[in-house]
């Protein structure tokens, strides 16, 4: 990542070597080569690989991105005599320091004076990471990985081979056609929906009654604030900057605001400005997220020490068409809502289509078309007024989605926001022509602007002409607080530049964006197989699987093998509780990672009880939970909001992953994860249906989030609902 402070990317290098025979031969793998991977070309100074599993050894390090190319080789050493060694056959292995790479190869060693050949599987992965990524990875390793509770199972394992699949019967009669197991999706549709259609409805237009799509001669609609028409407000905003008269195009271009709106201005509270008697600490107070832990603590600090305008945040998108603005805005909106921040997404294109129709040609977007420029600025002002009005009613974060490609437009928005909210510009830049071509064609295919266009290629040509007009007047963001995402949508690295960004929530937004990309990949969510406590109707605990649960674990292994047979970089994530680990046990050929953050909700003193027992022995607790299942916290345990907070690192890592992930977890945890992908309100989280023995496939990519469900077998016993 590059930013105004000059922080540069680092190259994370991971090398894995796999061979069941090494332990039998009492040999330990090492690396040697050019600095800094193994140290030097002296085999005696080679660095050892750490044992990660029974037959897997691993070495990892961080290399400056500006470093020259590296060469290395493997060397095997006797454990009892390190002076004796066997060097890998073949040429040196080159390691590039400028890109993300993944390579699967073989290392060949000659033993017994060349009479015997030993082949080892080698996996080399390099990834450009920012300091934020490195810090987060270390924190996740320290805080969320925990030793397994199942004896003999490692926290991270790579299965040695696929040979045992057929003879162990892991498919367990699973049909070859996985489509036979597809069941309806009750919560989230499987079709592709144009993201802009899901944004906030233009209430200032809908409330006052819009003119017909083709009638642009009527008076401009009035906004709902102070009885002032939005057109007058727009013109007055312009007039105020240039001496009292309506601006010409030349004057608009010359106008520039010389201060960054919402820059930090912290001050200690005084008796006149703050007292505990009028300060609310509950989740109902304005500006406070309905969340626990760090988010709530940060909100308290912001209310105590932050200027009033900093408590409301406007993320203003900037960028040419087809740069992924709406997609980025939708992801950010979903993430902030899931954390409990009151967030809405305002799309100016939706306002434009409602006010001026969907049949505008590319000429409408010319920079020298004064009527078109004024019409587009008018609907931008309408959207901004709606967003600011919503913030005054209690909204916290507004995502303002438009091109906002000139300083005149951005300065108009900053003038309107003065004293009301902090503005951060989020600029998306993309120079990858393949990505742009794909985005353009997807835009024409989905956008209502081209719904009546019968000739697809003519629509593509019109959109490219529109894009050319925007490019002629485009002015990159250099003013105020901003985040620049440069070539990040392809998932192949890119840069994130930031300026004048501070505070808890802006920091979380930066951390989220640095991990986002558009690489299509499936995420499979499933509960563990039926456990003995499911049979008994008891909550919590660390039980083993029932007979039905063991059968599901074998069926799941067969499903994963068929569904991900071409995805050898996929991984399996479980909690540290044995019912998830045992469910994942039959799956062979994929690394398995345990997360403590994926453990079931902590039922505290109610752990191991049935709900009938809780109702009888702890009636007050039973009633409190019934009234507010989202916020109810088990005595000495957790609430759903607590679970959401501890799952944030899991969400960040799922967003960062470019390969498929299978998450085997628990009902409450999967409800919270599913709510993120489906953009469900927090109040619905405790009641989301996550049935046993069912796989929920979430497809993530440029088209958004889609869902598919597979039911491999019926649950024999009803399950307790945490």
Automatic annotation (TrEMBL):
Residues where substrate binds: 527-534, 579
Domain CBM20: 5-113
GO function terms (MF aspect): 6-phosphofructo-2-kinase activity; ATP binding; fructose-2,6-bisphosphate 2-phosphatase activity; starch binding
Pfam families from the UniProt entry: 6PF2K, His_Phos_1
InterPro entries: 6Pfruct_kin, 6Phosfructo_kin, Carb-bd-like_fold, CBM20, His_Pase_superF_clade-1, His_PPase_superfam, Ig-like_fold, P-loop_NTPase
CDD domains: HP_PGM_like (cd07067)
Coiled-coil annotated spans: none
Single biological process term from Gene Ontology: fructose metabolic process
Region (Disordered): 204-232
Keywords, alphabetical: ATP-binding, Nucleotide-binding
GO terms under cellular component: cytosol
Record's compositionally biased regions (Polar residues): 204-215, 222-232
Name of the protein in question: CBM20 domain-containing protein
């Amino acid at each position: 990542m590059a930013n105004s402070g000059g922080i540069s990317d680092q190259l994370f290098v991971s090398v894995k070597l796999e061979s069941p025979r090494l332990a039998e031969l009492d040999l330990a793998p090492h690396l040697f080569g050019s600095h800094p991977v193994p140290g030097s070309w002296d085999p005696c100074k080679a660095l050892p690989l750490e044992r990660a599993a029974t037959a897997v050894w691993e070495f990892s390090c961080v290399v400056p991105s500006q470093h020259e190319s590296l060469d290395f080789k493997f060397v095997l050493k006797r454990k009892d005599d390190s002076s004796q060694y066997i060097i890998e056959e073949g040429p040196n292995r080159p390691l590039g320091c400028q890109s993300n790479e993944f390579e699967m190869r073989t290392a060949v060693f000659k033993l017994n004076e060349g009479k015997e050949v030993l082949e080892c599987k080698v996996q080399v992965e390099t990834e450009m990471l920012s300091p934020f990524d490195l810090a987060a990875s270390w924190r996740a390793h320290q805080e969320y990985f925990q030793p397994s509770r199942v004896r003999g199972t490692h926290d991270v394992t790579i299965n040695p081979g696929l040979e045992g699949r057929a003879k162990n019967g892991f498919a367990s009669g699973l049909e070859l056609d996985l489509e036979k197991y597809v069941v309806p999706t009750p919560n989230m549709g499987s079709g592709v929906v144009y993201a802009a259609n899901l944004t906030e409805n233009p209430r200032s237009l809908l409330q006052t009654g819009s003119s017909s799509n083709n009638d642009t001669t009527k008076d401009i609609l009035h906004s709902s604030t102070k009885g002032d028409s939005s057109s007058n407000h727009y013109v007055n905003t312009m007039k105020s900057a240039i001496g009292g008269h309506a601006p010409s195009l030349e004057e608009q271009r010359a106008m520039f605001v010389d201060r960054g709106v919402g820059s930090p201005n912290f001050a200690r509270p005084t008796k006149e400005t703050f007292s505990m008697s009028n300060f609310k600490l509950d989740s109902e107070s304005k500006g406070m997220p309905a969340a626990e832990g760090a988010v709530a603590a940060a909100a308290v600090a912001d209310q105590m020490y932050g200027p009033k305008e900093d408590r409301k945040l406007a993320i203003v998108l900037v960028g040419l068409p087809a740069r992924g603005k709406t997609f980025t805005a939708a992801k950010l909106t979903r993430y902030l809502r899931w954390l409990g921040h009151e967030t809405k997404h305002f799309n100016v294109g939706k306002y434009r289509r409602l006010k001026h129709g969907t049949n505008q040609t590319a000429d409408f977007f010319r920079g020298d078309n004064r009527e078109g420029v004024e019409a587009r600025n008018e609907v931008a002002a309408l959207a901004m007024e709606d967003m600011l009005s919503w913030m005054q009613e209690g909204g916290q974060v507004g995502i303002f989605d438009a091109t906002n490609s000139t300083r005149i437009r951005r300065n108009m928005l900053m003038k309107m926001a003065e004293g009301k909210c902090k503005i951060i510009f989020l600029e998306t830049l993309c120079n990858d022509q393949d990505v742009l071509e794909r985005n353009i064609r997807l835009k024409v295919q989905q956008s209502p602007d081209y719904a009546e266009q019968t000739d697809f290629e003519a629509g593509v040509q019109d959109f490219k002409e529109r894009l050319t007009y925007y490019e002629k007047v485009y002015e990159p963001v250099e003013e105020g607080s901003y985040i620049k995402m440069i070539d990040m949508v392809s998932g192949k690295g890119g840069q994130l530049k930031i300026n004048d960004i501070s505070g808890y929530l802006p920091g979380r937004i930066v951390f989220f964006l640095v991990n986002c990309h558009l690489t299509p990949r499936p995420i499979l969510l499933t509960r563990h197989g039926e456990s003995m406590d499911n049979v008994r109707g008891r909550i919590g605990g660390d039980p083993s699987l029932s007979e039905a649960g063991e059968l599901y674990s074998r069926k799941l292994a067969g499903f994963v093998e068929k569904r991900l047979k071409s995805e050898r970089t996929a991984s399996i994530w479980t909690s540290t509780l044995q019912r998830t680990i045992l469910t994942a046990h039959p799956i062979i050929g994929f690394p398995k990672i345990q997360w403590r953050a994926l453990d079931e909700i902590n039922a505290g003193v109610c752990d191991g009880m049935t709900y009938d027992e809780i109702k009888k022995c702890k009636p007050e607790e039973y009633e409190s939970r019934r009234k507010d299942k989202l916020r109810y916290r088990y005595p000495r345990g957790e609430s759903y909001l607590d679970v959401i907070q501890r799952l944030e690192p899991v969400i960040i890592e799922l967003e960062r992953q470019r390969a498929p992930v299978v998450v085997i977890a628990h009902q409450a945890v999967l409800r919270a994860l599913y709510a993120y992908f489906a953009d469900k309100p927090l109040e619905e989280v405790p009641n989301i249906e996550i049935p046993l023995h069912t796989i929920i496939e979430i497809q993530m990519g440029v088209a958004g989030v889609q869902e598919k469900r597979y039911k491999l077998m019926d649950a024999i016993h009803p399950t307790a609902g945490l």
